Sequence to fold (242 residues):
Amino acid sequence: MKTIAERLRFAREARTWTQAQLALAAGVSTGTIGNIESGARQSKGSLPQIAEALGINHKWIATGQGQMELNSLEKAAAYWLRMSTEQKTNKDVINDVINLTDNPDFPAIRRVSIKAQAGVTGYAVEYMNDDGPPIVFRKDWYTMHNYQPEKMLALRVAGESMVPSLYAGDLIVVNSAQTDPKDGIAFVVAYEGEITVKRMVRDDGLWWLSSDNADQRRYPRKKCNGDTQIIGEVVYRQTERI
Fold:
């Protein structure tokens, strides 16, 4: 992959995205993506936001140097740097306070408490009005990840089973539209009358609920059974632990 065109096409196809999907996530035109991939035009000014949308290293796509993939901290830093830069150059944001109430450009996620209960569903979702304001993200964050705001839930972590990944009191965002298990991914689940965060692990043809806590005597992994219900995938965390 000696050219920008080849690297961009490879990265896009690795995400199984069409040119139109990448253009939407990056905030550029489909023609811009097509021109770069065809080698007709080297629109280097758009490469940083295209790389950020793909979650890859801008230097790699521009020059071929370094690793293609970014780690999770680098991805977060790149995303928020672009967001802050856009805000600083937007006169409306500089001069006016953004109204976040029912703002379609900043869809909000409601804070909830999830309680286990007997019955068909196995759990109940209670919306919280006393745990702070809703969690707000820019509209393009949802678009980038193909999330639906109305399917997202924000809740507090309880217990220590996921330390050091998650601590009690951390605020997590859960995508309730994603209930298919993924190996190595954290989910909120209803299990044996308890609502908990566990990492799904595939082993010997079976799904297991695993804790990140190193004390496996206190937090042994447990096999999923017919009563296990996946409530949603954990996709974001806010923490005060540094």
Q: What stands out?
A: DSSP finds eight helices and eleven strands in the chain. The longest strand covers residues 194-203. Confidence is low (pLDDT under 50) at residues 72-77, 84-98. The CA atoms of residues 25 and 140 lie 7 Å apart.
